Each structure stands twice: as C-alpha cells, then as structure tokens.
Amino acid sequence: MSMNKMKLSQFQFDLPEELIAAHPSPNRDESRLMVVHRDTGEIEHKLFKDLIDYVDEGDVMILNNTRVFPARMYGNKEKTGAKIEVFLLRELNRESLLWDVLVDPARKIRIGNKLYFGEDDSLVAEVIDNTTSRGRTLRFLFDGPYEEFKRIITELGETPLPKYIDRPVEEDDEERYQTIFAKVEGAVAAPTAGLHFSRELMKRLELKGAEFAEITLHVGLGTFRPVEVEDLTKHKMDSEQVIIPEKSAEIVNEAKRNKKKVFAVGTTTMRAIESSVSTEGLLKPYDGWTNKFIFPPYDFSIADALITNFHTPLSTLLMMITAFAGYELTMKAYEEAIKEKYRFYSYGDAMLII
Questions:
Q1: How far, in Å, CA of 334 to CA of 339, rounded?
Q2: What is residue 124's three-state secondary structure?
Q3: 176 SS3 class
Q4: pLDDT tens digit string along 45-61?
Q5: I need a surface site. Which of 168, 267, 336, 354 has the fewest CB within 10 A?
Q6: Nearest to 66 by CA among 136, 160, 167
Q7: Please, are residues 334 and 315 in contact by the beta-carbon 8 Å criterion?
Q8: What domains are defined for the chain?
Q9: pTM of the predicted model, to two decimals?
C-alpha cells in the first residue's frame, strides 16, 4: 500500500468496548507487553517487566517527567447554583491568576459570570473571555500568597482521568495516574507509557547498565483532539510545552555516538525529541513549544525503539505509531492485540516497537 498519501479513514478499526481498561493492572510492571520487531515483523507476547531482556548496557531510556495536576474541578454558577465542571488547561498568568479552562455545560457560562468552588465557596473565579466553544479564560479572585492559592486548587481539584474511563475517581488514581518519575507539574493527562515503570524495574534496568534521560512535555488536551480532516496534512496540533535539558541531550547523543539503542518512552517523549533535532541528527537542548504532528511517511532521527500504549482508532497517536512501525505491521499488531484481548488506552497494556 502506498505510504505517500495516508488518509484519516485508514486509521479506523473496531475496538470492542470491553477492551478499554477502566483500572490499571495490580502491579505497574505486570501489565502485558506486546513486542513488535520492525525488521522481521515478529510479534511476541510478554509482561512489561520483560522489557529488561531487550535493553543492553549503555542503552538510554528517554522519560517524560511531567507531572499531572488535579485539573478537574466542580463549581457552582452564581445565582442559579448550577453545577459546572471546570477543566484547568493551563496557567496563563501567575500574577493575575489567569487560567485557560474548558467548561461544561458551556452554553450557560458567559463573560462576567462568577463561579464558586469549595464547600464554603472558598474560591471564586470570574469568566473574562471566550476562547473556543467550550474554552474560557478565568481570573481567580484570591488575595493570599500564590502557594496558598495553588494548595487550594490542588485540594479542590481531582485527578483528570480521561472521559472514556467511565467511573468516579478513586483514591488510588491519584498515585496510579502519575508516573513514579513525575516531577515537573504542568500536564492535564499522564504520559501513559511511563505508568508501567515500577521502582524495582528501574533499579534492575540501572543495574544492567541502562541510562535514563529525562525530558518534559506537558501533555495538553490536544493529544485527545479528534482529527476531523481526511487529508492529514491539514490537521493542526495544539502546542505543548517542551523542555529538553542539556544533560539529557548529552546522555542521548553519547549513546547514539556509541551505537547504543535509544528508547523513547511514550508518544509524548517521541514528539518532544523529534521537535529538536540538530542538522547532524542529534538531540538539541530546547525550552519552548511544539505543535509537531508525526504521521506516515516520516523519518525519525533520534529513537531506535518506542514504548507506547494501545491507542484509539483515528488518533494522532496511532498515526505516529504507524509512522514508526509501518502501516501494515501496526495494523497487524492491533488486530492481534484485539484477538488476544490486550487492554487499551491510558490504564491499558503496552507495546514495545523495536
């Protein structure tokens, strides 16, 4: 099949509802791992902790250390008291407490409305702008120190599980919807490939001589935005913030010079590193934004292997996977995953493409 003009409809497949994981596996590193070999087309069925068998001394794992903040809040509209869900997308201005948010139901929320949060309405926000059909800019009206404001927001917010995990947030979601190496707060969704790493597996990888390089890409909701154009070249990705520290770039480039394997842990990591490549095909330090959209055909510069979860039909993430593994092989692997009842999406199983 010709790779030169991929169409949206080629990324459609039937996913049985019951394969969408509602809960994570009991142990992080004991979710299943499908290993897909790009050179031979072989597909193996393993557990995530078997990842260690594919890693040699000097290989590098690039991890996204973004930390998810409790972005989903529930408030009431002044006068009517109608319950409103507010999803915090990003902080626009720290001094004036301006935030980009999504509101639901949106038609009731107009500029000038005030929203009240907390048992005793301890936090108030005013709607000052419309950004998209559901998007608003809010100004929080709060007098105390910024740290105190942040603490209140963290307390009132809940873990922003994706909508397709159709159940109330439970206590252990707070910990399980966060990687164990999450440090830099700013994501509204977890970089889910990283959720499979346990402390024990990290230790074992380290003892085997693997190195870790951390980058930050703050996952925004654009990751889940549907592609609505049949011609993929016309789809625009939302911008997400990326930080690639100098030290991480050095670790990765050293491995590349020594012909060691570089593993991108997650599609977010892959987007970040492909957004900052030098003319010699090495990783460059970076601090800025990316709206890179990777779909076939695409030449990857940095990573030799990709660890990722199983993605939604028609998603930009699935498109990136096919760019890396090839269209036919990816579709074959997904067919096999459905047949073998692998679990899909954020809390589901993993795939190693090598």
A1: 9
A2: strand
A3: helix
A4: 999 999 999 999 999 99
A5: 168
A6: 160
A7: no
A8: 8-68+174-353 (3.40.1780.10), 72-156 (2.40.10.240)
A9: 0.92
